[in-house]
Amino acid sequence: MSYNHDLETATELPPKKLTQLKASTSPALPRPSIIRNYSEKLENNKRNGLDLELSDDTEAVIVKKVRWAPIIGARSSSKCFNYTTPSSTKQIPFDQDTPDEVRLAHELRLAVHRGGGSIDPEKNFELRAHLSPLQLPYSQVQRILKECELYERDYNTYFLYMDYGRQLVAMVCKVRTNNLNEMKLRLANFLRQNKSRFFNRHLLSETGFIKANFPKSMLSPDDFHQTLSTDAMWCKATGSCITDFEKNEVLFKCQPHDLREVTAKLRHCGYKIIHTELGYCPNKPMVHLNDRQMKSYQEFLNRLKQDQDIVKVYDNVRVQ
Questions:
Q1: pLDDT tens string 82-134
Q2: CA spacing 20 to 30 A to 166: which of 27, 130, 218, 312?
């Protein structure tokens, strides 16, 4: 009975608060300490750094200057290439002391520029005409042409539509320039003085021209025309005419996209191709000018062709 009584009294007593104990899973380690190393056998980079004596003077900051590589145009004169050919596309009045090599190089420069920018004589008729009487070594000519090719990389070919004499003559100018806007501003005042302007009346269309030599020379004029018409029809040319009967020179016209095909067929027929180009031809009846109008138009045309960037001029004027 006493045992049960003690249990009842124990349940009636309020529970006592126990102290909370903080447990840790990691064992207690001693606090690390830095040991000064006085050994002289170790190298400086392997020591702990506590035995080094630092000076109070701060070292000056070292600034490294980077020298950028110069551009091609700013190289020293010792590494520069000496160009023989002048870069100007204008006719230069040389002095008497100018070497003949520079004069001939300038002539080739103008021929390359006004012939379309090509250094291939097969594609540049102006260059071919200047190379035939030229008395220069082959290696020197090749060097001059390479210099001209470098100059012509900045130039592009454009076609400018013009109207002369208040819609009297329609013109298309083939130009080669490195600044088209500057060229238009240069020609604007000249066109205004001659009652002309930049305007396209769609009277000329793009056409392929093929200048060649006729293979047979012992033909009468009638047989010549008949054979020329037959060959033009077979070669897919749109027209043909005789430019010089004594030299057997003829001119074929074709569509621009058929220029290569027509040229190949004419070679197959025995024609010797002199020159091929893309130009403009009148698509309507040509304009007839009287003597006074023709004289003023020729003066205007000659002054226009004096511009260094004018390559060729196409118009719809009937040649008398």
A1: 677 888 888 888 888 888 888 889 999 999 998 888 898 888 888 888 887 77
A2: 312
- Concatenating the DSSP letter of every residue in 98-132 gives S-HHHHHHHHHHHHHHHTTS---TTT-HHHHHHHT
Look-up: residue for tokens 């840790």? 24
Quick: pLDDT tens for 195-253.
999 999 999 999 999 999 987 765 677 788 888 889 999 999 999 988 888 888 999 99
- Report residue 202 as tokens: 């769609």
What are the structure tokens assigned to 149, written together?
A: 């090719």
Q: How many helices (H) and strands (E) does the chain have?
A: 8, 8
Could you tell me the CA-to-CA distances from 16 to 8, 13, 93, 235 in Å, in that order?
Answer: 17, 9, 123, 123
Burial string for 118-153 (b: 16+ CB within 10 Å, else e) reads bbebeebbbbbebeeeeebeeeeeebbbebbeebbe
